[in-house]
From TrEMBL:
<protein>
    <recommendedName>
        <fullName>Methyltransferase type 11 domain-containing protein</fullName>
    </recommendedName>
</protein>
<dbReference type="InterPro" id="IPR029063">
    <property type="entry name" value="SAM-dependent_MTases_sf"/>
</dbReference>
Length: 222
């Protein structure tokens, strides 16, 4: 998939991609989550091969660290396609985040359509939360029931679903079609607060993922 996608999105006459491709990595304005923070630290986890150079917040450049468990394969892919990205993703699995960095470090962590590939999604989310500074925010933005839609094919192991029966929306992590599931609030009880939203493609102006709804989870560390 990535080989053909990168080849098609190449900016003619350069050794990298079109700006409209590289700039489209987040569904929300991330600057609002770090407003007023001095020297903010931002992590883009599960980035894939197309990583941002950084954020521009009120004219200030904010660096973004991007990590992916397949980064070592993306480095080889760049070489095969003769591409020179302005910034490389760092090799790090979700489940090893606090080993790659440290606990209590980032002000903001962003994950988009990536945790469905995790080996152990609950542990991955715990690692991400522990890497946050107290009061820091973790944003999880995923197509609803992605692994179910893909019939568990390939790397799609986990689905993000929403339980709408309890008054407030609850995020449910489901493994391989629901053979095992857990409420995310139970995973993070005592460690962080969790709020959940459900959005349509039209609301988000999403064109690169063909799914009708997206689960947005905002987690704030205690």
């Amino acid at each position: 998939y990535w080989k053909s996608h990168l080849d098609l999105q190449r900016d003619i006459g350069t050794r990298w991609l079109k700006a409209e491709v590289t700039d489209r990595w987040a569904y929300l304005d991330l600057c609002s989550f770090i407003a007023g923070t001095k020297a903010p630290r931002v992590l883009n986890a599960g980035s894939g091969p197309i990583v941002p150079k950084g954020l521009s917040c009120d004219g200030e450049a904010v660096p973004v660290v991007s990590v992916d468990g397949l980064a070592h394969l993306y480095w080889r892919l760049y070489d095969n396609l003769d591409l020179v990205p302005p910034q490389l993703p760092v090799q790090c699995d979700f489940e090893e985040i606090t080993a790659c960095f440290t606990q209590d470090y980032f002000h903001l962590i962003h994950v988009r359509n990536a945790l469905d590939h995790a080996f152990d999604a609950p542990e991955a989310i715990l690692q991400l939360v522990r890497a946050l500074r107290p009061g820091g925010t973790l944003l999880l933005h995923h197509a609803r029931n992605e692994a179910d839609s893909m019939n568990g094919v390939g790397m799609h192991r986990w689905s993000f679903d929403v339980d709408e029966s309890l008054g407030s929306l609850r995020c449910i992590l489901k493994f391989r079609g629901g053979e095992w599931s857990i409420d995310l609030e139970k995973v993070l009880r005592g460690l962080a607060s969790v709020s959940v939203g459900l959005h349509t493609r039209q609301e988000l102006n999403v064109t690169d993922v063909d799914r009708p709804k997206f689960v947005f989870v905002t987690i704030v560390r205690h």
